[in-house]
Design goal:
The complex is a heterotrimer. By secondary structure, chain A is an alpha+beta fold. Helices cover about 25% and strands about 35% of the residues of chain A. In chain A, helix 2 packs across helix 3 and helix 2 runs parallel beside helix 4. The longest helix of chain A is centred in the middle third of the chain and has 18 residues. Classes of the chains: A alpha+beta, B mainly alpha, C alpha/beta.
Amino acid sequence: MTKLQIKDLRKTYGAFTAVEGLDLSIEQGETVALLGPSGCGKSTTLNMIVGLTDPSSGDIRIDGRSMLGVPPGKRGIGLVFQDYAVFGNMTVRENLSFGLKVRRMTKRDIAKEVEKTADLMGLSNSLDSPTSVMGGSQLQRVALGRTLVTNPSILLLDEPLSNLEAAMRNEMRQELRRIQKQTGQTVIYVTHDQIEALSLAHRIAVMDRGRLVHYGDTHEVYHFPKETFVGGFLGDPPMNFLPGTVQASQTGHRVDIGCATIDVEATPLGLSLQSGSKVTLGVRPESIDLLDVGATDLGAEILLIEQLGADTIVTLLLGTHELKLRSTQNVSHHIGDRCSLCFHPGMVSLFDAETGVKLMASPVSKEIAA
Amino acid sequence: MTETTTQEVPEMAPPPSGLFRRDPNDPGTLPLLLIIPSQVLLMGMMVFPFLLELWISLTNWQPTFGSLWEAEFISYFNYEELILYEPRFLQALGRTLLFAVICLSLEFLLGLGLAILFLKAIPARKLLFSLLLSPMMIMPVVVGYTWFMLFQTNGPINQIIGWISLQGDLPQVEWFRHDATAFASIVVAEVWHWTPLFFLVLLSGLNAVPQNPIRAAVMLGAGPLRIFWSVVLPNLLPVIIIAFVIRSMEILKIFDEIFLMTRGGPGTATEMVSQYLYKLAFQDFRLAYAAAAAFIVLVLTVIGVNLMLRPITRQILREE
Amino acid sequence: MHNPKQPTNIDQSRRSFLKGTAAALTGTALPGVLYVDAAIANTDAIHHIANRAVKGASALAPSAGKKTISILIPGGSGGNLTPFLEEWKTLTGLAVDLIEVPNTELYSKAMQEAVAKTGQYDLIIGPVFALPDFTEAGLAKDLDLYVERYQPELDHGAYRIPYPFSEFGCKYDGGYRALYADADNWALYMRKDWMEDPAEQAAFRAKYGRDLTAPDTWEDYDQLIEFFTRPEEGRYGSLEYRAPFYTKWQWMQRFCSKGMLYFDKDMNPLCNSPEGIAALEELIASEAYLPKEAFTNGWSENYNQYGIGNVFSTFSWPSFFRYNNDPAISEAVAGNLLSAPVPGTRIDGELIRASVNAFGWLYVVNEHSAIPELAYLFAQWHTAPDVSDRAIPMNGGYFDPTRTNHFKAPGAAMKEKYTQAWLHAAWDQIGDVIPDFVIRGTFEYSEALDRNCVEAVLGKKSAEEAMNDAAKEMARITRRMGKERQIQSWNSLARTFPEKIKARHGVHTWT
């Protein structure tokens, strides 16, 4: 069942377009992350969803009902702010009660609901503490509780983890997952942090310069980005991009990347690749394998090896291009060694060199050979 | 000498003391010596006059009785006189309090209303802003004289009342002749003069109120009144209290306007503490008696200001 | 004093409207039927006082530690002084520095000097009622020695300052403490053109059965102001003061003209006597004849409002006449201003008038001055008969005619500014002058009286309550000031009241 449906949403400020032609639908009980760098339009989108900003055009529907003109407090949406926006002059209990008091519930009902939510949020012991003395994760719980207690049909969290210390993030992430599971709440995370998005969401909507560039489940968005932007924005290190030229072949296509040619299977997305057209070849660092030294002497040179605990990041020079490779295995190579590379089958993406839009997914693996 | 040898000196020589102590964790006496002159100055500037005033208030000194050093020590007599036998003083005190409460409430409400208005985009905002602030930049003397003229019986205010009353049924008010209207007229002058300060303070206070709690309240479905009362006002509280403190201390000193408009009259109907003190000190030159009265006012002011500041003292002093 | 038998030279037009007062004048042996005495202006003697001052100053100047005389003056009084400073410097080599403060602050500034003793002012021009305070506070230097040495002829000789100004304007407790520079008693000012209008005269006669003339008594006066009060025409009978600080003077005139003094021999207040209450009730009753502005007007508002020309009469200072008789200032009033004696009360066939000396400025030498004698000499020079005759008519000053020659042998400028008629009327009224509270604590007594008068006028208290309160407050002030000392001071002030009033209280028998 579609919970939230956004249709051709636009927001312009004078000549500046903050959000352009956004279409998005979210299912009941789903967790979606709205991801993008700052300025991509995700905050504007959030504000339009909750009703703090009016869209220039387009429609927002919740449970099929248009929300245009419905005031923020009446949309059944809960919003948790990045800075929590807890009422600093009130105790935890007063914060949690606020939304219920507005709804003119009886004192007894309020007390009951507040106790319940406090229990869920782990705030039972600090209900009467002033919030002015509380730290980040506690405030996060209060903010979340204050919203949840009103039983919103959609919960929006704006950068929920970015104000927390690293140690607290993990804990809070788990908390959020737990709460989501327990309540079955439809949740939208708005974040610029890919880890947050990848770890919390079922689906990710990546935005760039006011456009929705990719909306899909986390696996798809991560491994098969629809644009170079998505590939470059997600992942640390991000996707490697190699410029190349298409060479038609009998078996399919080959892409010449200067120092080598790579076979890509022809599974065109409604278009065929013209021989000689310029493309960008994208491959994730973890989709590259390092082959033994000397297997072939044409290949890459190792520039840097970084040991990051479980992972090792290897920086390579392939022709004139730098590539990063992530390996979960111990790397026995040394800096300066030459080596061969292997791209995992089906994990290579081709993008139009000019527009950065994905051309096709290639399930073919190709050893880089002389 | 090399560095090594200089570093060794402390080890070889007995540890220097006093001013030349080297231990970086021990401030020694130098800071103390540096502080002493300013402390002495402070004592001289604040404590000495304070004690002198206290002592004078215990004498019967006034210049027409001879010099201060010949003045008779009369113990608490002045205080007794002021509190028990001089209703005029206590009346002036009470009146000042009433005046302060009325004026500050009006100034606050008007200032708040204007400030809220200015949060929205209104036409000619910049010009209006400058205009609205201008009254408080005018000298009290000028304000007093201006309103004195405006409230004249044949002055503009009565003229306006004349226009408003269609059948001429509204009387021409002789503002300074009746207790209530005289009092009202100085309230008007004072409120006109100082509402801009509240406006300015509240406007900048409102602008500094974090927006997200307000949005959060909106999201929770709260209406404007509840948001203002529960979210905005508590955030403004320190600013409001400080504005109130400053203004009440100022209002205690109100002088020029009353001097020019009513001279404390009719009778003593608009006589505030400052007028009464002025009369005691600069007309009657009963300096000891005035000192006693001023001392009472000082004590009450200190108590009053501390009470007003109480809700935010912890915040100001950054104590948890 | 004058010889009343000598012929008068009042001009005929004045005589016609002074007819009403003629009986009073002759019948009560007031001073001054002889008026002009040009002889005193045309002898060398007129210069002697100034010359002695110049000679004295020239002799002292070379050895003086300070060559500049600083004078604390009330703002707006510089006009009488500034044009003469160069002359004084030429004569003596001494510079004069004027330090101006607002006239309401002068008393405070001077008293502060009494406390601080800085000597920053050598001379102070202060109000006459402050002289006792200045003296008691050790600010006003005892001038007996200088008066003896330089002979300013304050209370004797042809150029003397007429009594009682020479008394309360120069002395306190029997010793010389000041040089009086500005006689400032009130007179009644009326619209001559209104009075001379035949239609008005006829209407007045029809209504009151007597001629429309300057009033002898307060009843006459009250009829006049009633007659000219026509609110529908925007006309009013009087612009008497009813504002705080001024109202007491209106009361004093009515009260003292009932043969009363402010206090009895033992300084018990008499304001709550039947006469005091009646005087206040009269003030209350005349409200109907006053425009509303009277209740807020201070002196300058009063001057200006009268100048508009819609009010028949007012009581005021000499400067009022000078001001409003100037066509450049008041077209309506200039040339139409008649000055007459303040109305009186007829008691036992005797008409008693009381013209209050409601201010008046004087020179006081600062006790703490480094050059008191030079300071004194400047004051003597500036108040000398010849110099002051030139100084007083200057524009932008406060000083009014004070010495005998100003009235009786005025110089050209003096005559032009004040007019012969006014000078004459003013001289005639000197015998009726009553002092203000020229005693220690002047502001306290004045304020107690004035505030209560105002409260009664505004209907906040009955006249009786107001006067009882005022009496109580004044008695309390006296007690606190030290009764004995105040009685002594009051007894000498009481002696300066008009004879007719003094006689009723046997002041001459007070000890």
